[in-house]
Amino acid sequence: MNRLESGAWYAIAADHDLPRNHVYRTVLGGHELAVWRSTDGAVHVWEDRCPHRGVRFSLGEVVGDELRCQYHAWRFGKTGACTFIPAQPDLKVPGSIHANVWPVATSAGLVWTGIAPVGTPPALPPGAVIRAIPIRRPAVALAHALAETPLRGLALILQPLDEGSTMVRGIAGGDDLARADLALMALRRRLEQAA
Amino acid sequence: MILYDAHHLAPCYAVRLLAGCLGLAPELRPLDVYPGHEHRAEAFLAINPLGTLPVLVHGDHVLTDWQEILAHLALTHDRAWIPAHDAALFGWLGMARDLGASAGAARLIDTFGAPGDAAAARACANVLLDDIERRLWFGERAGRDWLVAGAKPSIADLACFVFIAPCEDGGLSLRDRPALRRWCDRVRFLPGFVSMSGVFPPMANTGR
What we know:
The complex is a heterodimer. Chain A is of the alpha+beta class. Chain A contains two helices and 15 strands. Chain A is elongated, with a radius of gyration of 18 Å. Chain B is globular. Chain B has seven helices and four strands, in the order E-H-E-H-E-E-H-H-H-H-H. Chain B starts with a strand and ends in a 20-residue tail after the last helix. By secondary structure, chain B is α+β, with helices and mostly antiparallel strands. Helix content of chain B is 48%, strand content 7%. Chains A and B meet through strand 2, strand 5 and helix 2 of A and helix 5 and helix 7 of B.
């Protein structure tokens, strides 16, 4: 398991991963996350688990400013509080029914979260957000490889996924997304074959 | 129009899905493939000696290839679904067959006890899914929503969807393939969309 560093911000999605009416799914250091955007453009990062029966929120659907669980269609508002239980339409939903909400920040075209993150996400050079590529190597091994052989023109950020795999995100200076993609896929082949 | 069908087989689902999108309601003749093996029975082999499903009987036509059925329905009902002027259509239909032999095979091995090497099938499928993810992501950057360039989906989208949407039943994952998940949502939200076991229908965003 990749231990998450308390206080740090981790990039877990790009802005373009979050169209309206879509629930994006990812994992950060073994924590499954569901990420969605409300109509005001705000981004919400929740544990990917409905508090009712534990079904993944990312199987559900965004309806306006609410996320609706696929299993029993319980609805949850932007604060994470359950707003409506279809099987008991007259019930005033107790405030204790709540999605597990993570901190969120958006900057440099990326969505960030973490465990008690401090301050603001790290500043990145200007450029375009590249396609994120998962590599079956632990984040520490990737950081080591990138320190040894930096990829020119790319500011890279590592998202530890589950045990032994890492999502490589970043910004391409000069906006050359195709070149960045080729470089990252080559890195992936090199590291996964060496493993 | 008669469709010999098995609910859980992806190629049959592709035909039902296109029929739904076209607003057609073929008369379904469900076969008990598992455990009944009705597709190996003489009565069905007299219709299709290959013993494969789906089979579409439409007037004098008896069509036994699922992609030919998709093409036939699109050509006879709405040609927007078959942009044959674009060579990419044929590439993507080939991709769909390759997905059937990999992601589709893994699902049948894992969930229906079909014979085969699930690990090898998954290895092939992962290569294909990674490539589709890459092409969809760059397509989105260029303002494209669908596999073949153009404002509308094609039979290639449906042909690939029926293997990709239920691929987690075969031990594959869409988790780190966000562009594929967005494209699956676009297919799910098409007017006339129908679901299959393992493929969630839209709950609310279709206006129904």
